[in-house]
Design a protein that fits this description.
285 residues, mainly alpha, two-stranded antiparallel ribbon
Length: 285
């Protein structure tokens, strides 16, 4: 017990403890948090929660941060100066393109945040934007590396596949976010989202994918994601949370796309973890 609260002796010790923390709490992080999150978001949208809890921005942000822990723990051992520089550029890019989009309508089309997702930068975009945006790209990149196998060695195969996966992620995310009232485009043919949004995402997905591709050594990244059982748990959370919200609002195309991500995760055995460990009266198979 004392070791758990002792100051880590070095980075490797910190990484080891973080891995152990995530491993011990996989079910809570990857299953309980997104399902509870979906219930709270839907209850907020339907006016079933008191004002202090309804779409509470700090509650939303803290929940997202917990669900990001498996991805952070998985990638942390691979973050060197090059990766840090590329991810920093990507962070700045996410702020810049989102601010331009929110103030000019380019490249996503006119949109406005209706509900603050944590503190807002210049009263326009969320300060925590990279926490929402970067994992969409990183999860898509990792999933494609595993699904493509040896074909992922070719940039002509890898990069278009990741860009397509990022677009597919937004085909799930945006309709649910619009239905909840997080942001609004003022209408659009795809569940309230205009096609211009996805034209903008082609640009953002391409820039983000190229930066992620530059950030990490592909050999080490493939080795890590294959050996780290929880590295795609954040994508499991994504499928459950946003798939559930879309299902409640009858957005069946996004639900179908979310299920396709789920099929990919099942194919890779990324749902195959002992969910009952630690629960009274149950043992893992």
């Amino acid at each position: 017990m004392a070791e758990a609260f002792a100051r880590p002796s070095d980075r490797q010790e910190f990484e080891r403890r973080l891995d152990a923390l995530v491993e011990r709490n996989r079910f809570t992080i990857a299953i309980v948090f997104p399902l509870v999150g979906a219930i709270l978001l839907l209850a907020s949208a339907e006016g079933l929660l008191p004002a202090i809890l309804a779409f509470n921005p700090y509650l939303v942000l803290s929940g997202v941060l917990v669900m990001r822990l498996p991805l952070v723990a998985g990638l942390l051992p691979l973050v060197n100066r090059r990766a840090l520089a590329a991810l920093s550029v990507l962070t700045l890019y996410s702020y810049g393109i989102e601010y331009v989009g929110a103030t000019t309508g380019f490249p996503y089309g006119e949109f406005v945040y209706e509900i603050p997702l944590g503190p807002m930068l210049i009263d326009t975009i969320p300060v925590g934007l990279p926490v929402f945006f970067l994992p969409l790209v990183l999860n898509s990149y990792l999933l494609c590396l595993l699904l493509l196998g040896e074909r992922a060695r070719s940039a002509f195969v890898r990069l278009p596949a990741v860009i397509a996966a990022v677009l597919a992620v937004d085909l799930v995310l945006d309709p649910a976010a619009v239905a909840l009232g997080f942001w609004s485009y003022g209408g659009g043919i795809y569940y309230g989202v205009p096609l211009s949004n996805y034209a903008g995402w082609v640009l953002s997905a391409t820039v983000a994918t190229l930066l992620v591709d530059y950030a990490f050594d592909s050999t080490r990244l493939v080795r890590r994601v294959r050996s780290c059982p929880f590295m795609l748990d954040d994508l499991v959370s994504f499928v459950l949370l946003w798939g559930a919200v879309n299902a409640v609002y009858g957005a069946w195309v996004p639900v179908a796309i979310a299920l396709l991500f789920g099929v990919g995760l099942v194919q890779l055995d990324r749902f195959d973890f002992a969910v009952w460990n630690g629960l009274p009266g149950r043992t893992a198979d």
